[in-house]
Amino acid sequence: MENYTLFLNYFNKTPELMKKQLELVLKQSHQPMLVMACFLGVKNSLLFKEYTDFVRKNNLKNWKYTLSNHDFKYIGRYQLAINIPTDYVVMLDDDRLPSEDFCKKMVKIAKEKNCIVSQYGWELKKDENGTYRDMLGSFISPNILLKKDIRKILIDEQKNLLDADYLCGGMVFHKKHLVHLFKEPILTDKTGEDIMFCLSAKQAGIKVLIYLPFIDGSKNDMLGHEDDGISSTLASENAKKINKMRTLLINKYKQ
Questions:
Q1: What residue segments make up the domains of the chain, in order of their start?
Q2: What's the CA gap between 198 and 178, in Å, rounded?
Q3: What is the CATH number assigned to the segment(s) 4-253?
Q4: What CA–CA distances, in Å, run from 51 to 64, 98, 142, 185?
Q5: Could you report the per-residue pLDDT of 101-123, keeping only the tens digit for each?
Q6: 32 forms bridges with which residues in the sheet?
Q7: Per-residue pLDDT at 193
Q8: Among candidate residues 177, 74, 161, 87, the one with its CA nearest the CA of residue 121
Q9: Which CB contacts under 8 angstroms, 24+ apart, belong to 48-52?
Q10: Sign of the dihedral through C-alpha 81, 227, 98, 166
Q11: Cα(46)–Cα(157) distance, rounded to whole angstroms?
Q12: Which of 74, 107, 108, 122 is most open to solvent, judged by the fewest CB atoms within 10 Å of its CB?
């Protein structure tokens, strides 16, 4: 099994949700070689204290953090990932809760398929004007398995990997794929690193996939999503401007 570095990114969620996530990371059947918690511009000092107290209490020598008063946005963790000691990267947003075999399964898929993979993402479609827009299309997540007709089709076909345009909630990949994000000047560091990374990788022939748990009989590799009503993107005062920028990025990168 390949070693991996786990990136945790904290912004505006509660210390209670953080603790729940950290406890689940500690229970992973395949433990990370390195955990890097990113506190890049976090205003809530309780989050940083919760993390450091947890690390100290459990004597976790390979759990590190990076702290900055400047908000590097989500792209900061991709910059850090360039120089990690492992080939594989697992990134989790602060509202994602991994079952015990999640990291093991996702790293295995990333290696076997040479892909970028998550359990949440978008397959985009054009609007009535022939333009792609952010969050227009099919949002794919483990929740689609709650629909019995879709679940039956997927199980009958043993289809647990679906093509996507871009992923969300974090993703898993070999760090060599980061070249596709940074090979050209970044158009913006405010938003859209998920779009730029996934769509530029697809242009280079790298698959971007969504893994659906349970289809192959697995039980403990799901990535849960706890929605506490705060979206890191939509919480911004410039939410409309951000959405417009993300739409511009999609139409630049999507073939």
A1: 4-253
A2: 10
A3: 3.90.550.10
A4: 10, 17, 28, 34
A5: 999 999 999 999 999 999 999 99
A6: none
A7: 93
A8: 161
A9: 48/10, 49/15, 50/15, 50/18, 50/19, 51/10, 51/18, 51/22
A10: negative
A11: 47
A12: 108
Q: What one-character DSSP code corresponds to residue 144?
A: G
Cβ neighbours around 2 below 10 Å, total: 14
Using DSSP, state whether 203 is helix, strand or coil.
helix
Encode pLDDT of 217-240 as tens digits.
777 999 999 875 555 555 556 778
Distance of CA 204 to the CA centre of its chain: 20
CA distance 243 to 208: 22
Residue 119 carries which side chain, given as an amino acid letter? Answer: Q
Q: Is the pLDDT of residue 79 over 70?
A: yes
Q: Name the one residue in this structure whose structure tokens are 């996702």.
A: 106
Instruction: Please answer whether residues 109 and 191 qualify as being in contact, where contact means their C-beta atoms are separated by less than 8 angstroms.
Output: no
Q: Decide the pairing of beta strands 63-68 and 34-40.
A: parallel
pLDDT at 25: 98
**Average pLDDT of 183-189?**
85
* H/E run at residue 108: helix 102-113
The whole-number pLDDT of residue 123 equals 95
Q: How many residues does the chain have?
A: 255
> Any residues with CB less than 8 A from the CB of 192 and at least 6 apart, and which?
245, 246, 249
